[in-house]
Structures are given as structure tokens and as C-alpha cells.
Amino acid sequence: MLGAFVQAFRTPDLRRKLLFTLGIMAVFRLGTFVPAPGVSYPNVQQCIQGGGTADLLGMVNLFSGGALLQLSIFALGIMPYITASIITQLMRVVIPRFDELHKEGQAGQAKLTQYTRYLTIFLAILQSTVIVSVANTQLFPNCPVQPIPDDSPLTLVITIIAMTSGTALIMWLGELITERGVGNGMSLLIFTSIAASFPSAFGSVLESDGGVARFAALIGLILLITLLIVFVEQCQRRIPVQYAKRMIGRRMYGGSSTYIPIKINMANVIPVIFASSILALPTLAAQFGEANSGWVRWILEHVANPQSAIYMAIFALMILFFAFFYTSITFNPEEVADNMKRYGGFIPGIRAGRPTAEYLQYVMTRITTVGAIYLTLVALIPTIAFAQMGISQQQLAFGGTSILIVVGVGLQTVKEIDSQLQQRHYEGFLR
């Protein structure tokens, strides 16, 4: 892999793309430290050092690279765009118009992308309003000072506008990386946000009691999980497809053999994000309840604690459910079977049409079962291991979700760099 990067920097065109991508990532990290208008940076730092941050926005803070608790212009990070993209994909099941646009090709995809942008701005306004409204009360419950000293309506509106504009800028930066850089822009920005939290988490583990032993055990666990993720993400089931020969005019077309690649984990990390987001809702509701209420204490002890048995059980069931649900949306066996029949393709030993769709559904169900179990293990094993090693909840930046995203984006980016290297350094016919 290091050799591929060295070779990439020796290629002028690819070097410009890599430097452009690194520059955008640096701008993104710089924006996480720029406080929004009306926010007192010294007060925010005092609240962060005091410790008592709320746990309900933990995932948003992780995906923003710590910008949320800094109350910076990039406080929302990439989460509004992720949520908008997921909602747009789910709308294909509910609204037929979205499914028609998905089938229209490039023009329909451009329209769906525009809808995703509008929805991202709407969600950014909504989320920034919530964050600004709870910044002085529930974002830092035990802080003696106010992160936003002047909480007048005009100041709060300006802060909301700044955070929403920051989200729009992040979305633009991600699209710039996709168009002019290397890799998927949004994925690389998520990678940057999560990877930025690793050094502080390593440091907190080293500074704790028995830090060296815990640090060595943590590194070993991360390496084992990384090997598992790389192995599973590279695995795929290849279903052979044969195309019949067809005579069109005076030319013979078809007669080729190919295959349908089906990944074990087609849903990627989406089921884990879905499950984590839904499990954060009871915690959010508990923040507005009485501290001495029985239901509030039960939620904080069992639902808001990732190391409780009830949380793990609910989390595992929701991951299994959303893995099947999201895969059924993104992969339609009937649509694939119809396209194969239209172009004269068939699976050897399987009749075209409905039998092909049933066979694809059978294969998808078996593969998705393995993928859902794999996702559940990757999401839960680190949490269980951290609890056994005595690592606190505040040091869970190395959760299974984070490792899965970092390794997955890294693999995807290295593959794209390697493919571009092959395009620019192929062997000619004459030597």
C-alpha cells in the first residue's frame, strides 16, 4: 500500500489530485476549531475540561471530529448529509416518484442529489436550532459558565445561520473531493473526523491506571478487528451470468460470460448508524425529564449505557433488522432479473424471469444473514472488550462503528488510487 502511494506521488496528475484532497481535508479540520458567532471560546474550553458533557450527541460529535462540543461553524459535521442521503434512499420505497427518478439514469440521479442537498440544509437548520437552544443548559450540564454568554434572539439566529452555512460548506467540500480529488468526498470527510479523535483517545488510555498494558491490549484488539473487517469486506459471492448470442443486422452480439458480485456486507455501516441514532432518542427524552424519576433513571442506566446488557441486546436486534431492511431497498432481485432477461442474460441452470429473481432472493437472504451477524459482532465486541479492560465510556472512540468506517473508507480509497495507477502505468503491446 505504501508503494502505491509513493508511485501515486510520482505521477503528476495523480499527485495533484492527492494534494488537492489533502488540502480540502486540512481546511475541514481547520473549520472545526473556528467558533461560531456568539460562542465564547474560553467558556467552551472550560466546560469541556470540566467533563460533564451530555451523551445524547456523542455520535454527532464523533462524526464532526469534536467540532460539536467546540460549537464551531462545522459543529454539525457531515451528519445532516448522511441523514438526508439515507432518507432519500428510503423514500424510494414510500414515494414512487423517487423510484422513477432512480431508474432514469444520470438525469434522475442529479435530481435526487438536488433533493438530498435541500433536505441537508433543512436538517442542518433543525439540528443547529436544537444545539444552540440547549448549549447553555443541557449540552454541558455541570458547567458554571455559559458557552453562549449573550443568548439574545438575534445572537442565536446568527449562530444558527453560521452552523447551517458551515454544513453547506462541508457538503460542497465533499463534492469537490469527489469531482477533482481521489475517493468519495463525503466518506473521506467522515474518515477525517473519526481519525482525528484517535490520538486523544489513545492518550486518555495511556494516562489511566495500567495504561501501557491497556494500550497494548487495545492495539491488539484493533488489529484483530481490522483484519476481520478487511477479510469480510473483500469477500463476495459471484453469481455467473451467461448472455446468449443475438443477431442484430449483420452483426452478432452477446455470447459473453460475466458475473454478479454480491458483497457479504451490502448495507455497509448504515444499520449500525440507524440503530445508534434510534437508541439515542430515549436518551434525548430523558434529558427533559425529572432527574429523580424512575423511567429517567432506568433509561440512563440501561438504554444510555453502551456497556449494559439491555443496550447490547436492543442494539444487536436493531442491527440485524436494519441490515435486512436496507439490503432489501438497495438490491432488488426482480429488477436485476428483468434487466438480465431484457438483454438476453441468464444464470446457468436457472430459468430467466421469476425463477432467477427467486434464486437471487435466496442467495441474498443467506449472504445478508452472515453480513448482519458480522456487523453485530464488529459493533459489540469492542464494547464488551473495553468493559472487560476497564476502559470508560468516555474513551469509546474506538468503537466498532468507528473502526468499520475508517477501515472501509481506507480500502475504498486505496482501491481507487490503485485503479488510477493501472490506467496510467499499463504495459503497451510493444516493448
UniProtKB/TrEMBL annotation:
Main location: membrane
Membrane topology: Multi-pass membrane protein
Subcellular location(s) of the protein: Cell membrane; Membrane
Alphabetized UniProt keyword annotations: Cell membrane, Membrane, Protein transport, Translocation, Transmembrane, Transmembrane helix, Transport
InterPro entries named in the record: SecY, SecY/SEC61-alpha, SecY_CS, SecY_dom_sf
UniProt xrefs under Gene3D superfamilies: SecY subunit domain
Transmembrane segment boundaries: 18-36, 67-95, 115-134, 154-174, 186-206, 212-232, 309-331, 372-391, 397-414
Any Pfam family: SecY
Subunit record text: Component of the Sec protein translocase complex. Heterotrimer consisting of SecY, SecE and SecG subunits. The heterotrimers can form oligomers, although 1 heterotrimer is thought to be able to translocate proteins. Interacts with the ribosome. Interacts with SecDF, and other proteins may be involved. Interacts with SecA.
Function, as annotated: The central subunit of the protein translocation channel SecYEG. Consists of two halves formed by TMs 1-5 and 6-10. These two domains form a lateral gate at the front which open onto the bilayer between TMs 2 and 7, and are clamped together by SecE at the back. The channel is closed by both a pore ring composed of hydrophobic SecY resides and a short helix (helix 2A) on the extracellular side of the membrane which forms a plug. The plug probably moves laterally to allow the channel to open. The ring and the pore may move independently.
Recorded family membership: Belongs to the SecY/SEC61-alpha family.
Full protein name: Protein translocase subunit SecY
Organism (species): Georgenia deserti
Gene assigned in the entry: secY
